[in-house]
Design a protein that fits this description.
By secondary structure, the protein is α/β, with parallel strands linked by helices. It folds into five domains: about 1-125 and about 265-275 and about 325-395, Rossmann fold (3-Layer(aba) Sandwich), CATH 3.40.50; about 130-265 and about 410-455, 3-Layer(aba) Sandwich (Rossmann fold), CATH 3.40.50; about 280-320, no CATH class; about 470-520, no CATH class; about 530-800, Rhodopsin 7-helix transmembrane proteins (Rhopdopsin 7-helix transmembrane proteins, Up-down Bundle), CATH 1.20.1070. Helix 11 crosses helix 12. It is rod-shaped.
């Protein structure tokens, strides 16, 4: 007993005094338990399973000697057990008491398995289950964004189960465990050194330690000796405020440590009760004697087994020493936590007894609505009332037990800070409340003092965060928290840090340069408002007007030989078709629509075919006209006006058939091209059936080639009947333009494809207009003397005479 008290004197005695104070307070409360006297028996378990079981058996037996299944009513009137402190000793005690349904209320055991009412039917506690403590630790770690965490636990059920729950909660939330170590139950210097080295070398800056203070002390001593600093330690309740670490050697190492502790409470009148203590007033209190001598550093002159031998050097207690006014650092009267649980446990039993004696006959909770009899009740009957007790204590807090025998899970979060006196104090910097379906964490971050005195929240990650515009790429063989940052692919963005995957922009959007947001794509088409569109429109209209002027000149001079030569009707038709060619180029400009897409290529193909057919017909007319004048020529029968018309109609009709088939099988349509040019939506016409487009161009090229060959072969015919030279040159221009068009068209995108095609239409049409009709206009307007029948018939002679 004495050795045990020397080890635990202050914190154990503080709880013992709280129990005695609560019993005395209850005795004075005439409303709670009137005419009932409460007593108590104290057993020292020495924190061993054997000590716990022996004390429990003595309590149940009612005698000094433990006899199983024996109960002496004369000596034992115990109704409930308050204790034990530790989970390791509470479990065997709860198993034994559970056999008899004997109420047990622990004020310190936290292991989760004790909530199992199948195994421990009579166990209750005023200290929250370790499950909620572990959840609170995990929430605290995640609150600061620490995703790379080390775990250290002792080898008891308390440490192993608690750390496992913390691990599960962290992994579930996406954090990773850098390492997980267990402190051996039997001291091993080699294992302690290994754990210390693991912590020192680890890149994890946050270490969660789920252990009792005596087990973790050797590890922290080794770490302090190795001068390991900069780590953030998160302590479970059992060492969150331990006096063992209040030494200079731990100040640098443990500064900034977080501890999750049971909620703090106030016991009204408890301070005054302690101040009234005096060993001379209570001579039978052996605990008070030891406490008094330790506090005042003197020896009591009370003859007993403890200090019957006084030496001459012994300082004798005078008996008038006063506790009031002393700086009692050995008691944490302003920070009552586990002691507060002892106080509530006593009141839970008292209120259960009050409810039991208040039972009315016929309204009881037991068989046939009976009530328990105070003078002769069974332990399970009182257990029923304790389970269902629900009252407000003197602090105005609710005290009750849930279906698992657990109290409300209320925790405080303390921060280890160094005082000017080079010791630790533990200000509360947060609170955590938890239930089966709700967790609430509140932290006062400015009040926190971090390790090394930094005011900034330390980081603990395996890999630095990926900024927006990047995604996380896992590293082979590493936890998910260890990753590389990879830029999103083209067309994708990530708009938050640590994105697992990039997302595609909508069809009308495109990533900005940083690839962290989508911006609206620029819509592109050849419009009438832009300079290029204005230029092409102006040129096309100018050529239409120029063609109209030429047609007007020809109409006014229709009776002249120059106009009549080579079939004036074909000339009119060619001029009209060229005018339509220039006008059809305007369909390619502006916002493409479904209708314009369907007809612009068709209109261009048919009209241009008509133009080339007219040129071909004019060339053949020249050949036939020259050869028909020869004697016995078979071509004379084709020299009439019908052949050119039939030829133009047949050549054009074949192109019409190609275009109509194109429109029936797969017509062109408006399309939005979002892939060809980065960051742009090209509004264009999809040709539908590209083969039909190229067939149309091939047919036009075939007619132009035939016209070129025929014109070239007839270039040496007499000038009076012949414009073959001009046709040859015009066909060379035409074919050159369209041969250049093909590679240029295939190598461009967007509106520039349209520009290339318009340029080919305009330039080739202008080539036909200028090469064929400009020389004739020159004669009609500037050389009227050459526009006579006589000149044409004797052109060479007349010319030589004049010049």
């Amino acid at each position: 007993m004495y050795l045990s008290l020397l080890r635990f004197t202050f914190k154990v005695y503080e709880r013992l005094l709280a129990m005695i104070f609560a019993i005395e307070e209850i005795q004075w409360d005439q409303k709670l338990l009137p005419n009932i006297t409460l007593g108590y028996v104290i057993y020292d378990s020495c924190t061993t399973a054997a000590g716990v079981l022996e004390g429990t058996m003595r309590l149940l037996t009612g005698q000094r000697k433990a006899i199983p299944n024996y109960h002496c009513n004369t000596f034992s009137s115990a109704v409930a057990v308050i204790g034990e402190t530790f989970s390791s000793t509470s479990i065997p005690m709860a198993r034994l008491l559970g056999l008899y349904k004997f109420p047990q209320i622990s004020y310190g055991a936290t292991v989760t398995i004790l909530s199992d009412k199948t195994q421990f039917p009579s166990f209750l506690r005023t200290f929250p289950s370790g499950l909620y403590q572990s959840i609170g630790i995990a929430h605290l770690v995640l609150y600061f964004g620490w995703a790379w965490v080390g775990l250290l636990s002792d080898s008891s059920d308390y440490g192993l189960q608690g750390s496992l729950t913390v691990k599960d909660e962290l992994v579930k939330a996406g954090a990773c465990i850098a390492f997980s170590e267990t402190i051996p139950a039997v001291y091993s210097e080699m294992k302690i050194l290994s754990i210390s080295e693991t912590i020192r070398k680890s890149s994890a800056n946050v270490i969660v330690i789920y252990s009792i203070d005596t087990d973790v002390y050797p590890v922290m001593e080794m770490i302090a000796r190795n001068n390991v600093t900069g780590k953030v330690w998160v302590a479970s309740n059992d060492w969150a405020q331990s006096y063992l670490f209040a030494k200079n050697e731990f100040l640098r190492t443990l500064q900034g440590t977080f501890g999750i502790v049971v909620r703090r409470g106030n016991i009204p009148g408890f301070n005054e009760f302690i101040y009234r203590l005096n060993p001379y007033i209570n001579p039978d209190d052996v605990f008070l004697k030891i406490f008094w001598e330790l506090v005042f550093d003197c020896k009591l002159q009370i003859v007993d087994n403890i200090n019957k031998n006084l030496t001459k050097e012994s300082k004798i207690c005078k008996g008038d020493e006063k506790l009031e006014g002393m700086k009692m650092d050995f008691f944490k009267l302003a920070d009552l936590r586990t002691t507060y649980n002892v106080y509530n446990a006593l009141y839970a039993v008292a209120h259960a007894l009050h409810d039991m004696i208040s039972c009315r006959h016929g309204e009881g909770p037991f068989m046939n609505n009976t009530c328990a009899v105070l003078q002769n009740f069974e332990p399970w009957q009182l257990l029923h009332y304790i389970r269902n007790t629900h009252f407000m204590n003197k602090n105005g807090e609710e005290v009750f037990f849930d279906v698992h025998g657990d109290p409300p899970a209320l925790f405080g979060i303390v921060n280890w800070q160094v005082t000017p006196e080079n010791t630790f104090w533990y200000p509360e910097v947060g609170r955590f409340e938890s239930s089966a379906d709700n967790q609430k964490l509140a932290v006062d971050v400015p009040a926190i003092l971090w390790n090394k005195g930094h005011g900034k929240i330390p980081q603990s990650v395996c890999s630095e965060s990926c900024s927006a515009g990047y995604r996380k790429a896992p590293q082979t063989g590493q936890p998910v928290c260890c990753f590389s940052c990879v830029m999103c692919f083209q067309g994708e963005i990530s708009n938050q840090t640590d994105s697992i995957a990039c997302m595609k922009c909508p069809k009308d959007g495109w990533p900005n340069e940083r690839q962290d947001k989508c911006i609206k794509k620029v819509i592109e088409f050849l419009s009438y408002e832009e300079p290029l569109g204005i230029t092409l429109t102006t040129v096309s209209i100018f050529l239409v007007m120029a063609t109209s002027v030429i047609l007007t000149i020809f109409l006014k001079s229709h009776h002249t030989p120059v106009v009549k030569a080579n079939n004036q009707e074909l000339s009119y038709m060619l001029l009209l078709s060229l005018m339509l060619c220039f006008l059809c180029s305007l369909i390619f400009i502006g916002h493409p629509r479904h209708v314009t897409c369907m007809f612009r290529q068709v209109a261009f193909g048919i009209i241009f075919t008509l133009s080339i057919s007219c040129v071909l017909a004019k060339t053949i007319v020249v050949v036939i006209a020259f050869n028909a004048n020869k004697p016995n020529s078979n071509l004379r029968k084709y020299s009439g006006p019908r052949l050119p018309k039939i030829l133009v109609m047949l050549c054009t009709m074949f192109q019409v058939i190609i275009c109509i088939s194109w429109l029936i099988v797969s017509p062109p349509f408006q399309d939005e091209n979002t892939t060809s040019i980065t960051g742009r939506i090209i509004i264009e016409c999809n040709e539908g059936l590209p083969v039909a487009f190229w067939c149309m161009l091939f047919y036009m090229g075939l007619l132009a080639t035939v016209s070129l060959i025929v014109a070239f072969l007839s270039r040496n015919l007499p000038d009076s009947f012949n414009e073959a030279k001009f046709i040859t040159f015009s066909m060379l221009v035409f074919i050159s333009v369209w041969m250049s068009f093909i590679p240029a068209y295939l190598s461009t995108q967007g509106k520039h494809m349209v520009v290339v095609e318009i340029f080919a239409i305009v330039s080739s049409g202008a080539g036909l207009l200028l090469c064929i009709f400009l020389p004739k206009c020159y004669i009609i307007l500037l050389r009227p003397h050459m526009n006579t029948k006589e000149y044409l018939m004797g052109k060479g002679v007349f010319k030589n005479e004049k010049y």
